[in-house]
Task: structure prediction
Amino acid sequence: MLTDQELVTLFKQGDVEALGLLMERHKAAVYGYLLRLTARPDAAEDIFQEVWLKLVRRPGAYSEREKFRAWLFTVARNAAMDHFRRESSRGAMFAAESGAAYGEGGPPPGALETAVSPEPGPQETLENKVLAETISAAMERLSPDQREVFYLRHYSELSFREIAGMLGVPIGTVLARMSRAAALLRKELQKGVQ
Amino acid sequence: MACEYGEKLILYFYGEAAGELKAGVESHLKTCAPCRGELAALAAAEDWLRAGAAAPSAAVMTAVLAQAANLRASGSFGFRNWTEALFAGALTAVMAVGFSLSARNTSPGLAWNSGLDSGLDSVEYSIYQAQAETSAAQTDWEYNSGLLEAEIG
Result:
């Protein structure tokens, strides 16, 4: 199987199929991340398209010396932040549409559940639903910084060192955010069980 | 109760702890109920994130590939010969040097808030990595494996 770097090299040489393979390989992770951040499928798709078009229009923006997934998530994160800036600059109109203007950490997690699964699947038990709601509420209690690291680690599957490099903070900061998030989640889940 | 194993537990849960660090966390877990609770909470949150998996529509994928095919057809991307590739490489090098010499008083944490063209992602990411490595070497005691191992030992 060709590596990401090899596929990009092929794409730079004009092989569009190589781009298709790259997109297939990373689409769920990138789109899932963007959907978590925006909680809106339409916005997530727009940003997803924007991210890949950046590579299409300027293939040289990515250097094969870097890890492709790290570059991809850096671009996705920046594009999402640009999106939030544009949305917040629309002011009242956006707030009226969404009910609240999202900060740069994205919307509260509960907003996403409507976007991802408007109706529970038939296999979803009541117990699972209650647990999902408890976790969703617990995630909502996390700070935007904590949620961001959580989402990045889950979707990008980058190491904490790589995430720290991406965010421009020491790895200790990233781990401390995750640690505080884990402690808070434990407390919230315990409260939910009681 | 605050537990000193907080960060180590995170590394352990995500498979980034090895050797003595991993063994130390496993030993600690036998006697620390709050840490076991945090592991369970992390597992539940990861399951919850996996359950929300979604994919973009085929139309979006097609639109990107169509644009790439159009650019290819028009000869707008891909290096047609070595002269062009060398010219592009030289131009990139000049731009990278110019960028690194320019005064940018933006802290790394605020870089994506700076309003700068996010098209500079590649260069920015390289700078972030270099800065993070430097600062990690200076202040990042949590991930200093020597210290961690000494603590555990």
Observations:
- Chain A touches chain B through 81 residues (CB under 8 Å).
